[in-house]
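seq:
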Amino acid sequence: MKEFFEKNKIVLAIIVGALIIGGAIYFSGRKEKPPIEEKELTNEVNRPILRTELVGNKLVTKIIDGDTVIVEGGYSVRLLGIDADERGYPCYEEASKRLEELVLNKEVRLEKDQPDQDQYKRYLRYLFLDNQNINLQLVKEGLAVARFWPENEKYKNEIIEAEKEAMRNKVGCKWGKVKVKPEKEKMELQWEKLTSELTGLRVVGACQAGNYYGKEVIVEGKVVDTYRHLKSNTVFLNFEKPYPNQCFTAVIFSSDQYKFVESPEKYYSNKTVRVRGEIKEYKGKPQIILKEPRQIEIGK
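struct:
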């Protein structure tokens, strides 16, 4: 072995030297990189959070109905402080057409309030064309009614006053064609399920419901005001008078809404209905909680 190293020490020295030089070149050219997990974590932490602050000037590209539009970028915008008829209701066409005349293919200024979005992820905004408040204008023309979230404060007084003025002067589709039905005609409505004969229950008017706390009855009246609470997603149907002066309220909690029609707050609005259930008191007002669609019926 000793003789082997003696004879080949020059060759071995060359091999060792080559290994040392090659290793030095390799390690000097290598850049330190974080492990894959660390790199991914770094990217995730540094990734910017994208938020859309939908305010300022935007082009209106499409009209959905009398209170909803699409603006550039494909964002859906629901007009704050008002409520116009949905498709199939009397003033749908007039309100939609008028909103189209006012803002379609025009640049409007979007102004926010609270909340920022509704349960359908539509942005809630006031629309201004130059200095004209479009939300307010639709109410002035009797094409929409005033409807506010509890958090809304901007332009609330102006819009409510415009609605009162339109009602007094019988302006537009909402108020110009309103006919007061005589009591006799109201009593002639047809009911298929919620009758005293079929249920054995007393039928009472909405404004008399407070006399029957703790009892199961059938309450009849007109739904004149509705509201969907943003956080709890609860639907409230207010009878005969708008909130907070309503005579009676039918309540549909979020957990039961899948059983009912879509958007019950719109479906039952301005209709005479009967609801069945035990009357309970909430903040001094009578109410019935609706858990099943069979508890409510529209008069025909």
